[in-house]
Task: structure prediction
Amino acid sequence: MNHFQATRRSMLAFGAAALAGVTTHGAPAAAQAWPSRAITIVVPFPPGGTSDTMARLVAQELGKALGQPVVVENRPGANGNTGSAVVVRAQADGYTLLLSGIGSHAINAGLYRSMPYDTVKDFTHISLIASGPNGIAVHPDFPARNLADLVALAKREPGKHSYASSGTGSSGNLAMELFKLKAGIAIEHIPYRGGAPALTDVLGGQVPILITNADAVLPHVKDGRLRMLAVTSAERSALFPDTPTIIESGTPDVVAVSWTGLSAPSGLDSAVAARLQAEVAKAVQGPLKEKLLATGLVPGGSTSEDYTKFVASETTRWKAVAQAAGINPE
Result:
């Protein structure tokens, strides 16, 4: 081999190595080094709520697994739309993630005339984190002893009774409206600014019926200050094994669970998405599993493909319910 051939071969080898540094199976070199700095999970709701707590639990486990800080940033507003839109505009580099959920990525599509994002196309949906039912509970002085009693009472006295929820467009509000549609009853909705004030007024007897996260009413059911009538999931809740589902209580086709997941801007590198999905699944099926189950939540860990399909189906479903129930868009 002469000097020219040796030099040419060395240059070709260098070029191939450089190209390999740019792409490996289509993945940018930056993806191979990810993560090299702190990651942010945007929570599109205020601190202290269920979504915020969930994000912080997941962030702690991801930080351990990825070897970089994972911080939570609260960007509330417009029932989750504000913070979600912030993530849509961020770079799809794996350093800005979103705690997506039933409000921001399903219900809002039926409530707002104009959405700042497409719930499916504008995101890379990574994995479902957890899901859980709402519970329908009543003040102990309310005459209904079970859900069938409530349906019969509402049919005898249409529009006379009312229920409290954590707000218009909340998962509880939509679940109750779905139940009302399927049961053919009329019960007035009293929206509150959060689950806590709704619970307070039902405990105080100002409103007779409450729908909220099942775990929130557990202590009050145990001490007799509330009576649980039904849960909104397909199967009974581990927190309330003696409480039937809405379907078991005689109203078919009513399954409505709250859910949260992890998402990113669309275009996230597939290798980064796969790593995140694997770590979320390990966290919710490992160290976080008992914590989730203790609050009545079902751990997730689904594939990116399955979570994307789930978000799409939930968006279609709840948009139809909002329209059928006549919930006015903002």
In short: The mean pLDDT is 91. The chain has twelve helices and twelve strands.
